[in-house]
Design a protein that fits this description.
By secondary structure, this protein is mainly alpha-helical. Helix content is about 75%, strand content about 0%. The chain contains two helices and no strands.
Length: about 60
């Protein structure tokens, strides 16, 4: 026989887990120092320039 599940409790637990997942993503995205953000932007710019430089002319 299975256990009885309170649906309200399960729904609230699911919502808490979703909020924690979103919070973890926000910490990763916004929890960086200015130097880290600038380094990432510089790296992305460098990669974009390298890709554009490798394109062949039509």
């Amino acid at each position: 026989m299975t256990d009885i599940v309170n649906l309200r409790t399960a729904r609230k637990a699911k919502a808490r887990a979703a909020k924690e997942t979103a919070a973890a993503a926000n910490r990763a995205a916004f929890g960086r120092t200015k130097a880290e953000r600038e380094a990432a932007a510089t790296d992305a710019d460098r990669r974009a320039r390298a890709l554009d430089g490798a394109k062949r002319a039509p």
